[in-house]
Specification:
The structure is a single chain. With 141 residues, this protein is of the alpha+beta class. Helices cover 40% and strands 10% of the residues. A two-stranded antiparallel ribbon has the order 1-2. The protein starts with 16 loop residues before the first helix and ends with a helix.
Length: 141
Amino acid sequence: MRETHSLISAPTVKPTLEFIRNQFEAWRKTRRRRCRIPEALWKAAVEQCREHSICAVSAALRLNYDALRSRVAKSRDTGLVVGQSPEIGFVKLDLGVPITPSECLVEMDAPNGAKMRMSFKGASREFDPVELSRAFWRQGR
C-alpha cells in the first residue's frame, strides 16, 4: 500500500527553510518505516536550493546530499523548478583556430656546453618537445 502525504497548505509567500523542515518532521512522525519521501516534499527541498546551498538544505532537512544534488541538477536541466532563472556562471566560447598562431621558444644550455633552441609556431606538432629535451639532457652523459 502506497502512503501519500501532502504539504500543509503553504502560505502565499515562499515557504522558508524552517517551514519546509517542519513539513519534513511532520511527515517523518507519521510515515511508515522505509517509505519514500513524497514528491511534494522533494520539490519543496529543491526549491529551497535556489536560495540556500545544497549542503545547507540537506543538513537542515536531514536528506541525503547526493540524492538532493541529483534532483537539483535534474530540475535545472529539465526546467522543472517553476520560475527559476538559469544561473550563468561560466560560458565556454569555441572560437575555433586562433587568428594569430601561438609561438613558443625554448632554449637550453647543458653543463657540457651544448646548446639547444626549439621554436614552435601554431597548434599542431608532429613531435614531442619533452622527449627532445630528455634526449638533449642525456646526450652529455
